[in-house]
Specification:
5 strands, alpha/beta
Length: about 130
């Protein structure tokens, strides 16, 4: 794999409360030339999205463990605050709402667990598509 050229479109936001997963992916993407921010809670993600532009947002929408109660809340915030970003939802919990939202051309839905390499390949593909 080749490193990508750093640009505003090579910015990635990782939203996941599993700090081990987010940290590993962040390190890998940074070594490949991406600018990566990590948020482990909804409010931190919202703050980052208000002040930065991202090419890709990778999110586990169930940050608080409230499975299926507000499936679309985090995704709605991403759509509002980062309308041009490609969104990759990586979660261990599926739902009809997530499946419906995955019909959007800019949203990909993947089950957990995913390897760092497999997920990074999807991220790089999305970043190249937005350049």
């Amino acid at each position: 794999m080749t490193a990508i050229e750093t640009s505003p479109r090579s910015r990635v936001l990782l939203i996941d409360d599993d700090e081990l997963i987010a940290g590993s992916l962040r390190q890998y993407l940074a070594r490949q030339g991406c600018d990566v921010d990590v948020a482990v809670e909804h409010s931190a993600a919202t703050t980052l999205m208000r002040s930065n532009h991202y090419g890709v947002v990778v999110v586990d929408p169930y940050l608080t463990g409230a499975v299926h109660q507000d499936d679309g809340e985090m995704l709605g915030d991403i759509a509002t605050l980062q309308p041009r970003a490609s969104v990759i939802v990586v979660t261990g919990y599926g739902s009809p709402e997530l499946t419906r939202l995955a019909g959007d051309a800019k949203l990909s839905l993947l089950p957990k667990p995913q390897s760092v390499v497999a997920l990074s390949e999807l991220i790089f593909g999305a970043l190249q598509a937005t350049s």
